[in-house]
Design a protein that fits this description.
Shape: elongated
Protein name: DUF4240 domain-containing protein
Largest sheet: none
Number of helices: 10
Oligomer: single chain
Number of strands: 0
Number of domains: 2
Keywords: Coiled coil
Structural class: mainly alpha
Helix content: 55-70%
Mean pLDDT: 85
Order of helices and strands: HHHHHHHHHH
Distance between the termini: 76 Å
Organism: Marivirga lumbricoides
Strand content: under 5%
Length: 193
Amino acid sequence: MEDLKERIFKVIEKQVEMKEFENWLYSNVQLSERMDEELILQLYIFNYNQQGVGYEFKTLFLSFFEEREFTDWKIITNLETLSEGCKEPETILADFCDLGYENYPYLTSIGYNKYELEDYAYFNRSREQMINEIQEEASRLLAEIKDWLRTHPGEDLSKFESRTKKIDMIPNNFPENVIKTESTSNKWWEFWK
């Protein structure tokens, strides 16, 4: 059943072509013997040649799983893809950026790399350097998540918190003379002086 679930998720994420999934389904004898299960029956009666098949497939078959189950699978799979050295990571980074604004704030940092990747020349770095940095960050985050899942089996990844230090919004390495706190006089009417 885990293999079936993963294949359905891969079709939804467009990692496996619909036609390839359909061929696999009809050639799988073990599944055809389990037609009494609702999910498997729906897979067999689904029209794989209809217009808008991707949307219809996603709408119907995601309803058989919990949303968190799909999202957790998607996060881990996408981190694995980035860790292996994905050459076109923009779509994954955009997903991470969106998920970071939802219930997965630890993905925001890696998701923001999509903006840096768009303007890599501005940062005086090559695209390959930035992809290597993304690969390292994804590997580190994936290792942290897998360690956390070992100690928190069955937990939702929205409860995960990264151990790495978050970026300070105001750098604390400013020279003290740049940010001065001045006492102002109580003569507010002399503000123009």
